[in-house]
Amino acid sequence: MDFELSEEQQQIREEVRRFAENEIKPVATEYDEEEKFPFEVLEAATEMGLNGASIPIEYGGADYSALETAIIVEELFAADPGIALSLTATAFGSDALIEYGTEEQKERFLEPVATGEAIMGAAISEPDTGSDVSSVSTSAEKDGDEWVINGNKMWITNGSVGDYFVAMCETDPDAEGRYNGFSQIVIESDRDGFKSEKITGKLGIRASDTAELIFDDVRVPEDNLVGTRGMGFLQLMQFFDITRTMVAAQGVGIAKGANERALEYAKEREQFGRPIGDFQAIQHKLADMHTQTEAARQLTYKSAWSVENADDQLTTLASMAKEYASRVAVDCANEAVQIHGGSGYVNDFDVERLYRDAKITQIYEGTSEIQKNVIARELMDKGF
Amino acid sequence: MKILVTVKEVAEAEDDFDIDGLDIDERYLEFDLNEWDEYAIEEAVQIKEDGDDVEVVSVTIGPERAEETIRMGLAKGVDRAIRVWDDAFADVGMLDPKTKADVLSAVVEDEQPDLVLTGVQAGDDSFGATGVTLAETIDFEWGAVVNALDLDAGAGVASVHRELEGGIEELTDIELPAVLTIQTGINEPRYASLRGIRQAQSKPLDLHELDDLGLEESDLESPLSRTAMYEPESEGDATVFEGSAEETATELASLLRDVGVVEG
């Protein structure tokens, strides 16, 4: 057993933290209030290579593994989840291209993301398709050497700022079996018939762009098919374990951010002639928050470590980490507001924003209920 | 062309700390790269990026812990690093600028750089003298408190702006080889990129002990020693008024009257 991060991992953590302190924290409230995408922060992050953390070296990335990426995600989310998501999600959907893409696709789609010239996204959910991915109804029909795509995608991160999206489409409606007949196809946003409508009024992560995508006879070359026709659903499932681990890391980050701010406030705020941190009621809250966060962190790191080292336990751990860390994020943000009292209820302090931001981690990439289903299914199937 | 950048890992104390003997208790210290040295590294790396065939080497005198800081320099574009350490350093404790310059001069002799960049001063002991002392020791030209640098490598001349008191700048041409002590604000130090951090792990970081540099323990004898460490008593307290300008103006006025700044 080894619970120590390597020197390299510590260096990553420190430098990302320094970046977040200087470039993200000072502007977080502004982007949240205005619900605008942080292009300026993204530009600075590109110089540091934050958008290409897991993209292979040959395509301009740093080729970091899930554990390093989780550390980066944690630090960024501790500063501000809205901007952090905007930065880390510029490579959403790239997993599929890294694993299943052709050489030509990798050069065309991965390199611009790593160098900051392009923003990509993954388009799976639809107005009627959330947790049940196998009910995707966006259709892609072959016409000559092109795919003709029709349908709507909902809640798409980077939807109105992205340059291309890996979209889940139904290509073979007559295929046998519930999970067959779907394919992943790259759709560029500058194609005729592509429309996006930004969704505003989100509870949290308001700097991050979310939109509805409308495909009206959008034509893309047949080369835009990622991997094997009809295997889209199974290809997607491969990455849920990683993406869920990353949402777990987001939860750990939010909890950490809330805890740090709560601790600082408890030391400074005085009532009854002494810092409120001197009172046991506050001390116990802080002790619980930090304990839960550390537990969530270890679960998340173990899941991230398993991506490279222990595939057999990964699915269970990823869902455990995602469900637990997102719950801890919500709980810690809640307690951080409580410790701030009235000051925590307005956006003079960051905890108000973290409280709103935390909730999404229990919803996207599979709700907490879906995670528990997955955990239970793995337990039953494996006969534990 | 070769640039040698001298860097130091400095300790920064937390707001509240305890003193342990002749130093601040290590539990309250955080170690980081000296702020001025960050600018010196950035300046060297920019010269490398703008020029052909420029090698940037960093050198530090420090224990193993300092390697983390040194790696950050490598991640930002330094090509290789040298760490000078020996148990003898730990025994000596405090190094005065002349002793440090003697040690660094041995490294200069090995490396034969064309340009040596140092920070103006170190944030912990703030002697502000190591750079110029080194220049005198190795008989290089020097310029202190440089806040702009334009290097003509072909002609072997560094055109520098030096920051003087009262907002005055001195413009000087300095012939290489030279030592320049770099002021903060000369550039905007970059963040280490993720790729840079990755690549830094395989860049050379060599340890030189006294023997390797042809030095002996007696060379570390310093005429300076720390005799005491204490926290000065605060002579005055700050008063903070909270509230609107209307509310606090009256309180401020009466305070100024009480302490005799205004009469009436």
Task: Give an account of the 3D structure.
The complex is a heterodimer of chains A (384) and B (264). Chain A has 384 residues and is α+β, with helices and mostly antiparallel strands. In chain A, 51% of the residues lie in helices and 15% in strands. In chain A, helix 1 (7-24) runs parallel beside helix 4. By secondary structure, chain B is of the alpha/beta class. Chain B has one domain (2-220): Rossmann fold. Chain B contains seven helices and 13 strands. Chain B has helices at 35-50, 67-75, 87-92, 97-111, 130-138, 194-200, 245-258, and strands at residues 2-7, 9-13, 19-20, 23-24, 29-33, 55-61, 80-84, 115-119, 141-152, 157-163, 169-175, 178-182, 205-208. In chain B, the strands form three sheets. A nine-stranded mixed beta sheet of chain B has the order 11-10-9-12-8-1-6-7-13, with helices on both faces. In chain B, strands 2-5 form a two-stranded antiparallel sheet. A two-stranded antiparallel sheet of chain B has the order 3-4. In chain B, helix 2 (67-75) crosses helix 6 and helix 4 packs across helix 5. Chain B is globular. The A-B interface holds A 7-8, 10-12, 15, 18-19, 47-50, 52-53, 57, 61-64, 72 and B 67-68, 71-72, 75, 190-198, 200-201.
